[in-house]
Design brief:
146 residues, alpha+beta, seven-stranded mixed β-sheet, two-stranded antiparallel sheet, 35% strand
Amino acid sequence: MQDAASNASPRPAGPALRFVAAALIVRDGEVLIGQRRANQPMALLWEFPGGKIEPGESPQQALARELGEELGIEATIGPQLIRIRHNYRHGGAVDLKFFTVREFTGEIQNHIYEQIKWVKLADLPTYDFLAADRGLIRDLAAGKLL
């Protein structure tokens, strides 16, 4: 007797959902942003530092690891500010958790970006951000979150 499950047609996979932790690194009314490199997907768009949450990591652990890799700092991860789920037109999806970072040790070094900049919150909308970040950008610029 065959297992009924083996005869079932496989269910098509939904869009890949990536879990990501990102930092709003705040200093003197400014926030640190990074521009993706030209050879990356979504090339030259701006984003907040952070990255994929690996299996077994909490979002805070993942973010601390990513900030060390990307910027060479040891960050004190503050409270979660907002969570955003975004479906991209090409089919992928991302679940983003943003945390505030107001304290870190080490000198910020650019390890992965085309460029990094400290930007006033009100000026954020003048940068071309990843689609998933655009609602957050509007709220930050309007003074609603920080």
